[in-house]
Amino acid sequence: MRGRRSFTPTDLAAHASTDLVQVATADAQTYCRVLLAGGYLRVERKASPARKREAIYRLIRNSGPRAPRAARVSAVVDDNTNAGILLGDRS
What we know:
Elements (H helix, E strand, L loop, with lengths): L8 H8 L8 H13 L3 E5 L10 E4 L15 E4 L4 E4 L5
Antiparallel strand pairs: 1-2, 3-4
Helix pairs in contact: 1-2
């Protein structure tokens, strides 16, 4: 991702796969959506399901050599006060 000017989820899956680990395009699409929501990617071209055309993304926030990862967050939400409290790492 850092070495390419722009990429599709299929490109990302192909470049991330190895002989031992295969990355599915669906997993790459999910990862792109997470990074887009986190402000790491920008959409260069929107996807067109009618034309079977994938979105093209560009990395806009390069924070270093280790890839950002999605995290499961534990929280308590009080719907009475509309307050949320993040809980510590529970792994």
